[in-house]
């Protein structure tokens, strides 16, 4: 059990590390390819690769119940998040988006209780609230109190992705982590072919190499490989517990924005990053119990 938790935390960290490059890569690619290609085209490219893998491995079709869950994953991870974050990155800096995405752990934990059958302990919630308040105070310090269209898009993206994370983590236990995101991409991609085709232009061939690398990264890593690690981590270590690692994501994003986009970083960011890391350490060690187990214990006590 302990080994599974450690492996789950490691896979979760790898997934978050990969996700942390998503907003910087999006910011680089959008000016050259546009929102439709970056937001939806990545799914079409990923679908081609996954189709080849599924054919080679002769993957069997999911059952009806699994298809319903895959539909939820597809709406959040394949459609809403890429499109809404791409829209937001047209007007917001990466550091702005990174801070708002820090609310993902609370959204994931809330949906985990509803869909994943987990009951995080009081210590988990205290750690989550402290982490969330930390990033919100940082947002206020940067003057992000004014709600823009990009902010609304990111908040909706956080809610839908939180549901997708919880559903995907639960489904990974029976279907497999890479199969979950793979099937979700295949379910969503047919709806994107026409919009993507209508937005392809010859001018895109003039895009610089860094824009093409960013688009390739978004298609192969952000849209597929990162989810393989992330869902695999949640299936091994628990949705709520591994979900705490998401508190590292905004600061990793800010670090990558400094490295690749030349954005500045302050000592306050570093101090708050340390506070968040402490919250993650506390939260990951907090007990998490199943609803079924809680119900059984209640019945035994009543007897």
Short description:
This protein is an all-alpha fold and 303 residues long. It has 14 helices and two strands; from the N terminus they run αααααβααααααααβα. It starts with a helix and ends with a helix.
Which H/E pattern describes the elements?
HHHHHEHHHHHHHHEH
Q: Estimate the mean pLDDT confidence.
A: 83
- Stretches where pLDDT falls below 50 for ≥5 residues? 293-303
Number of domains: 1
Q: Based on DSSP secondary structure assignment, what is the total number of beta strands?
A: 2
**Helix content estimate:** over 70%
The spatial strand order of the largest sheet comes to: 1-2
Q: Please report the distance between the alpha carbons of the first and last residues.
A: 30 Å
What composes the largest sheet?
A: 2 strands, antiparallel
Radius of gyration: 19 Å
Task: State the helix count.
Answer: 14
Overall shape: globular
Overall SS class:
mainly alpha
- Kindly estimate the percentage of residues that lie in beta strands according to DSSP: under 5%
């Amino acid at each position: 059990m302990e080994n599974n938790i450690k492996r789950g935390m490691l896979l979760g960290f790898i997934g978050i590390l990969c996700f942390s490059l998503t907003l910087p890569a999006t910011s680089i690619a959008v000016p050259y390819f546009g929102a439709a290609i970056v937001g939806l085209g990545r799914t079409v490219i990923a679908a081609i690769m996954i189709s080849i893998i599924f054919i080679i491995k002769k993957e069997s079709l999911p059952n009806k119940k699994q298809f319903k869950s895959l539909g939820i994953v597809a709406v959040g991870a394949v459609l809403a998040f890429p499109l809404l974050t791409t829209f937001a990155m047209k007007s917001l800096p990466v550091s702005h988006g990174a801070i708002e995405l820090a609310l993902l752990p609370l959204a994931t934990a809330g949906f985990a209780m509803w869909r994943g059958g987990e009951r995080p302990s009081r210590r988990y919630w205290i750690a989550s609230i402290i982490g969330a308040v930390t990033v919100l105070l940082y947002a206020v310090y940067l003057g992000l109190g004014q709600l823009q269209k990009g902010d609304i898009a990111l908040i909706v993206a956080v809610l839908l992705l939180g549901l997708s994370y919880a559903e995907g983590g639960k489904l990974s236990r029976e279907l497999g982590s890479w199969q979950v995101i793979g099937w979700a991409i295949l379910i969503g991609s047919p709806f994107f072919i026409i919009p993507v085709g209508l937005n392809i232009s010859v001018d895109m061939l003039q895009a610089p190499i860094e824009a093409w690398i960013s688009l390739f990264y978004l298609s192969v890593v952000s849209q597929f490989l990162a989810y393989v690690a992330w869902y695999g981590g949640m299936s091994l270590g628990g949705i709520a517990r591994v979900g705490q690692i998401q508190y590292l994501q905004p600061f990793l994003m800010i670090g990558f924005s400094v490295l690749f986009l030349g954005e500045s970083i302050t000592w306050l960011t570093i101090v708050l990053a340390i506070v968040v890391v402490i919250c993650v350490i506390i939260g990951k060690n907090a007990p998490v119990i199943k609803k079924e187990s809680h119900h059984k214990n209640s019945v035994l006590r009543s007897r």
